[in-house]
TrEMBL record, chain A:
Oligomeric and partner information: Tetramer of two alpha and two beta chains.
Coiled-coil intervals: none
HAMAP family referenced in this protein's UniProt entry, alphabetically: Trp_synth_alpha
Membrane-crossing segments per the record: none
Gene this protein is translated from: trpA
Enzyme's top EC category: lyase
Compositional bias (Low complexity): 261-279
CDD domains: Tryptophan_synthase_alpha
MF terms (GO), sorted A to Z: tryptophan synthase activity
Protein name per UniProt: Tryptophan synthase alpha chain
Keywords: Amino-acid biosynthesis, Aromatic amino acid biosynthesis, Lyase, Tryptophan biosynthesis
EC number: 4.2.1.20
Species per Swiss-Prot/TrEMBL record: Anoxybacillus flavithermus
TrEMBL record, chain B:
GO annotation, cellular component aspect: cytoplasm
Pfam hit, one: PALP
Statement: the UniProt record of this protein carries the keyword Glycosyltransferase: no
Family: Belongs to the TrpB family.
Designated gene of the protein: trpB
Residue ranges of domain Tryptophan synthase beta chain-like PALP in the record: 55-379
Enzyme class: lyase
Protein name: Tryptophan synthase beta chain
Length: 279, 397
């Protein structure tokens, strides 16, 4: 496995801390970041990320500010690719072209829209090509005959939804997941990563030989929730960031062990993602 | 106009399927099965059988003689959907979708509800067809509509209070969709209005068209001509689409009435077409009440059934092309119309339907006596008695 892709919500617990958290994640071994844009009606998200979105919205976070936050991260030296995870409606209100222009200006590396399925996404994919911002596609356990169609247009990496349901922490992953991943890999020309429900080092360990990366969202966001007061307080922030880093490192411990032997491949794939090349 | 939506589920630019990938296959399954069912005469026969034998259709067309005399203008007729089993037009759609679920071999139903009318209809058909039923309802609405919650429980349904967001219809719908994403392999999501991703807006319309089809025959029989004007209230807009659709190709004026709450110049209203902008809500591109950053805002109306920040995509289209005119009526105007209908005709309408009545009462005196106005009286007001009492007593204080 090559990729550890953490997900956090922009503006949770506040803008300043989001930047610190991203720096901590990069240092802890994240190879790509998914930056969630908070939305009032996040249909694909479970309670943990819903709560994070509410906190961020209360802090005044918007799509534009989230994109500008990426620019600030770049200024602070964050190098890993940053994928913007946003629902479609904020993009529609901002304007699709304007969205891509701002994403490009601020150094975003891709966009993922969970409620914009393949059939509705053509315009966004074309604009993404124009601006050099890859549009990340998802496949789900119900996709079946749709996998070939979706995989044929996949850019950067293909995101597999591990199980039926919304984002969240799951004790176990479905038995059919390995079969599903094999099937997706057989169609995909780009790395295949898995997300939704992955929340323990044990799960990471079991997935490391069957996919190219894992996305971990709710588990990390829950950690931020637990630490929010310490993170918000400048006096306790640095200790809270250390605790956060330790937790993240423990989650991806299995990857580090393998990573030593696979460092060559890791560099190659990261390069593909960060430059947005599809072929 | 009658051939829409297109194969992508679009009414002009509106509609579509803005849902997580997980739901694309389940939606395609429903769409395929729906097309087969609608082309199958035995399905239609079974649907009609339940409407007649179980729900008590056809519903009456009532000439509102006293109101017509009092207002002194056009003749006013009511299409009496309040006389349906469970007290509103919602049962038409619930029966249709339950039959489709049965045809698809699904015995577990999910539904969302605001005031509880669709929840009660879903619970009712689930009981009748031997299905399990889970109804998602915002915690705030659970408190406000405790009687309907108990009705659903009596009917054997499980009511799941939703604690996300503002804990009303929008949030109940979010939660129902989330639950469906997790259980789409064996659950059927029964949406209560002409909203949601394709094919729901089309499907719910097809199961509500019976309102307009019957009314058309009844008006021809009573007056020997089609009505000049048809008026219906619009929240999501299922009774309005059901009423308007069979008349869209005729020279008939159609007016949809949205909830203006405390006034469309305040922030407390649910007048989505009047005041909203294009956006995506619950899987469909339509008009939406939202802020400039694309966050959905909270609507307000005294009527829980109209208290929704979106509107069916077909209404958005009909507004866009100018075929239907959408206006709005405040809480105050709706309550006054409810009182007037009760006192004058001996009918207590639902507060939702009272919005359509209020608009009709404004228009009727301006129209000549040879014209006719047909109002969709979508539901009865028994459920609203407490709300009306609180409103009027509060007013007196």
């Amino acid at each position: 496995m090559k990729h550890f892709i953490p997900f956090i919500v922009a503006g949770d617990p506040c803008e300043e801390v989001t930047i610190d958290l991203v720096i901590a994640l990069e240092q802890a071994g994240a190879t790509i970041l998914e930056l969630g844009v908070p939305y009032s009606d996040p249909l694909a998200d479970g309670p943990i990320i819903q709560r994070a979105a509410s906190r961020a919205l209360k802090n005044g976070m918007t799509l534009t500010r989230a994109l500008e936050l990426i620019g600030q991260m770049r200024k602070k030296g964050v190098k890993i690719p940053i994928i913007v995870f946003t629902y479609y409606n904020p993009v529609l209100q901002l304007g699709e072209e304007r969205f891509f222009a701002l994403a490009q200006q601020n150094g975003a590396s891709g966009v993922l829209i969970p409620d914009l399925p393949f059939e509705e996404s053509e315009h966004m994919r074309i604009l993404g090509d124009t601006y050099g911002i890859p549009y990340i596609s998802l496949v789900a356990p119900t996709s079946h005959e749709r996998i070939a169609m979706i995989a044929s247009q996949a850019q950067s990496f293909l995101y597999c939804v591990s199980s039926l349901g919304v984002t969240g922490i799951r004790d176990s992953l479905p038995k059919q997941l390995y079969e599903f991943l094999q099937q997706v890999k057989s169609y995909s020309r780009v790395p295949v990563v898995v997300g939704f429900g992955i929340s323990t080092a044990d799960q990471v360990e079991r997935l490391q030989h069957v996919c190219d990366g894992v996305v971990i969202g709710s588990a990390i966001v829950q950690k931020i929730e637990q630490l929010q007061h310490q993170l918000n307080d400048v006096h306790t922030r640095s200790n809270a960031l250390i605790a956060f880093s330790q937790y993240v490192v423990s989650l991806i411990e299995p990857l580090k062990r393998v990573g030593k032997n696979e460092s060559q491949t890791t560099t190659e794939t990261t390069k593909t993602v960060s430059t947005g090349q599809t072929d | 106009m009658l051939t829409l939506p297109n194969e992508r589920g679009r009414f002009g630019m509106f509609g579509g399927k803005f849902v997580p990938e997980t739901l694309m296959r389940p939606l395609a399954d429903i769409e395929n099965q729906l097309h087969e069912a609608l082309a199958d005469s035995s399905f239609h026969a079974e649907y009609m059988h339940h409407l007649y034998e179980y729900s008590g259709r056809p519903t009456a067309l009532t000439f509102a003689k006293n109101l017509t005399e009092r207002l002194g203008g056009a003749k006013m007729y009511f299409k009496r959907e309040d006389l349906n089993h469970t007290g509103a037009h919602k049962i038409n759609n619930a029966i249709g979708q339950a039959l489709l679920a049965k045809r698809m071999g699904k015995r577990k139903i999910i539904a969302e509800t605001g005031a509880g009318q669709h929840g009660v209809a879903a619970a009712t058909v689930a009981a009748r067809f031997g299905m399990e039923c889970k109804v998602f309802m915002g915690e705030e609405d659970v408190k406000r509509q405790s009687l309907n919650v108990f009705r659903m429980k009596l009917l054997g349904a499980q009511v799941i209070p939703v604690t996300s967001g503002n804990r009303t219809l929008k949030d109940a719908t979010n939660e129902a969709i989330r639950y469906w994403v997790e259980h789409c392999d064996d659950h059927f999501y029964m949406i209560g209005s002409v909203v949601g991703p394709h094919p729901y807006p089309m499907m719910v319309r097809e199961f509500q068209r019976i309102i307009g089809e019957e009314a058309r025959e009844q008006m021809l029989k009573a007056e020997g001509k089609l009505p000049d004007t048809i008026i219906a209230c619009v929240g999501g807009g299922s009774n309005a689409i059901g009423m308007f659709h069979p008349f869209l190709d005729d020279d008939v004026e159609c007016i949809g009435v949205e909830a203006a709450g405390k006034g469309v110049h305040t922030t407390e209203h649910a007048a989505t077409i009047t005041k909203g902008t294009k956006g995506v809500i619950h899987g469909s591109l339509t008009y939406v009440l939202q802020d400039e950053h694309g966050q959905i805002t909270e609507p307000y109306s005294i009527s829980a059934g109209l208290d929704y920040p979106g509107v069916g995509p077909e209404h958005a289209y009909l507004a866009h092309i100018g075929r239907v005119r959408y206006e709005s009526v405040t809480d105050e105007e709706a309550i006054a119309a409810l009182q007037m209908t009760a006192e004058t005709e001996g009918i207590i309408p639902a507060i939702e339907s009272a919005h359509a009545l209020a608009k009709a009462f404004q228009i009727a005196p301006l129209r000549p006596k040879h014209e006719t106005i047909l109002v969709c009286l979508s539901g009865r007001g028994d459920k609203d008695v407490q709300t009306v009492m609180n409103y009027l007593e509060g007013d007196e204080r």
